[in-house]
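Please complete every field before forwarding. Incomplete forms are returned to the sender.

SECTION A: IDENTIFIERS
Entry label: holo-303
Bound molecule: zinc ion
Molecule representation: SMILES string

SECTION B: INPUTS
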Amino acid sequence: MPLWRPCADAAAAVAFAADVAAVRGGLPLDVDGVVVRLDDAAAAAAAGATARSPRAPVALKFAAAAGVTRLVGVDHQVSRAGVLMPVAVLAPPLPLGGVSVARATLHNYGRAGAGRLGVAVGALVTVARGGHVITKIVAVHAPPPGGVPVAPLATCPACRSPVHVTDRDGGGGGDGADGTAEEVADGAAAARDAAHAAAPPRRGGAVAVARCTNAGGCAAQVVGRVAHFGRPACVDICGLGAATARRLVDAGLVASPADLYALTADAVTAAAIPGLAVPTVVVRPTVVVLRVCSAGRAASTLA
Ligand SMILES: [Zn+2]
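SECTION C: PREDICTED COMPLEX
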């Protein structure tokens, strides 16, 4: 079928969206909806625009892929800013939209996150991939008697320092979890989950923010800061992802992003870090490029 159709009215447009949803599994690319546009230029101009977008085109999104599984545990991840984020561990993993979902963000510990849902370990939960990318728990069914609610830890899971919990009203923005949130979901969904976790839900309600108080010495925060420093949106260091950052920090070679500028191939080689075979380190006046090569390739150092 053609992937566009003139529609006489809104009902016809909704029917077309349903037709596309029925065949989207056979399309050569993933789609999450259709766009309805006015083909009358005068009417489109009269519709005007909001501060962010024109009103004439409207997206009709397909229903999110969803399924039911069991929440069997909760991990507590620590962001580069020290914010703890609860992450649901699901079993069995759910096949949703072509990926296997074994983990889903719970956002935070307050009424805008885990508390609002009434999440408890052992409960059956409905998990959805909003926009077919972000995985989250949207409903809790049959919480087990005596189920343990999700609550902030008293100490940081990474460094055992005391955790400070504050409540504030929800509504968006703020300092939600980030950094290691790329580990929340499988595959390509990870980066989008990290972005989603950075912005708490906008439904309102208290956002309980739990924060590790060991800003300078918490290894999870240090790894998060080093990995963030390497991202394309920051300095864009080739090869420096979360896993490499963790290896460099665990080996004692890096304790802050500044240490990357003093990192040498000899130091990395001497540390014999598993997974970091032959590094190539290129230092330029304004940017560090750290590229991890496969074993057997020649190493070169330019400084
Ligand atoms: Zn900590």
